[in-house]
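Re: the multi-chain job from yesterday

Posting the exact lines I submitted so nobody has to dig through the queue logs.
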Amino acid sequence: MKPIITSKDLVLYYDTFKALRGISMEIPEKQITAFIGPSGCGKSTFLKTLNRMNDLVPGVRVEGEVLFRDEDIFAPSVDVTTLRRKIGMVFQKPNPFPMSIYDNIAYGPRLHGTHSRAELNELVETSLKGAGLWDEVKDRLKKSALGLSGGQQQRLCIARALAVQPDVLLMDEPTSALDPASTMRIEELMATLREQYTVVIVTHNMQQATRISDKCAFFLLGEMIEFGDTEQVFSMPKDKRTEDYITGRFG
Amino acid sequence: MKIKTVTEKVMNTVFFACGIVAIACVVIITGYMLYAGLPAIFKIGPAKFLFGTEWASTAAEPKFGILPFILTSVYGTAGATLIGVPIGLLTAVFLSKVAPKKLANAVRPAVELLAGIPSVVYGLIGMMVLVPFVAKTFNLANGTSLFAAILVLAVMILPSIINVSETALNAVPPEYEEASLALGATKMETIFKVSIPAAKSGIAAGVVLGIGRAIGEAMAVMMVAGNVANMPELFTSVTFLTTAVSKEMSYSAGLQREALFSIALVLFCFIMLINFLLNALLKHKKGGR
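And the result, structure tokens for all chains:
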């Protein structure tokens, strides 16, 4: 299958620190790809490079290329707002806006020019249903999103990301701030998301990676050590370092 | 051990006493304002005093109507707010979100300096530069006017609005802005649709603080407003509540003097009102999240 995102020899510096040391990989469409590795290995940095959220960090410099549907995302002609609309992001800490549930979801579509009440209503409903939150909040759409539980807030953030109809969803440790029950709901949700979206998830939780992902990449010290089918990476890792990490010898 | 506990007790008392001094000042001032300001209001008649449109304190048949002063203060403050808030808010946005760090660090002390300039200096510059400019631009015989006062006040309230708004904008969790950018918003969209709304109660506090400063300002206004007890119009000479008191105090006597205290009492009430509003806003901010 044709990959949706292709990274070629991607090198990234924070000022003089080389955080990514030449990452090449092909992320398949409509599958879940997980990035694992110890803290500081570059997996989050790589994830944030894919929709250029790293642009916000002062002193970041990038070499190499990342192709999204055959277009280099670092090309000067690329409109970063369009890119981010196509490649959405869910953060580690649930970060709903201090607005109503409805306005949170409608924020993105409004930005991109949808103002008709009927259209927005429909988008809010489908997005919330897509994130498995509709039944819990349909009676209080006008209430503040900050009144929701942590797990609900995270699903709201997923719904908000879905509302702009992205192709790819990047998730940066989306369950690390949540309790086990909420984590399970989000994992179930991701299984349904993969039918329509490409999902890339950074996780510290190796059980999570085995449960939900199709492909898995292991990062260490800014390098991608191993990338393959999740089953293979976890049952028969090719690299000794991968084996050491997944069997808990370090990290 | 024992000495320690004694010092503890002594220091406790000292802190308590210092706290009392501040509170006592407020209580005494409030008490004195009521004592000195209320009698004249009743001698003149509350309605006649508050809604009388003519102030002729030294005439053979004196009239003590302070509606011109009240309206001038209200209009003047409103005008200064109307001009000062957009400029102040956008400056705060610039300092907090847009300007490169180096530039922001250069502009910020300038804003703080603006707050430190004595009001008499504002008045002087207003008198020497602004008043002739207003006269020339609008073809007036005399440039001292409500308009000139509004411009001076607008500049004077900028520091409060800028400082407080910038603090509020800096306190907006960066996660909100990241979320907005990740949805494909531009930086400006993020600022206006996420950052400013999230900081709105802090910004409102800054605005109210500015209003308080504008309504209480006397010196600068006295030097540019012309100090005639006219009903306020944009290009006439006017008297504010503050300047009504200060310009006559030195030669006043009898009921006139008492009436000046009454004017001060009215001003005092305005300031109290604004303070309550400010406290309510800040409390709301704390309880909001």
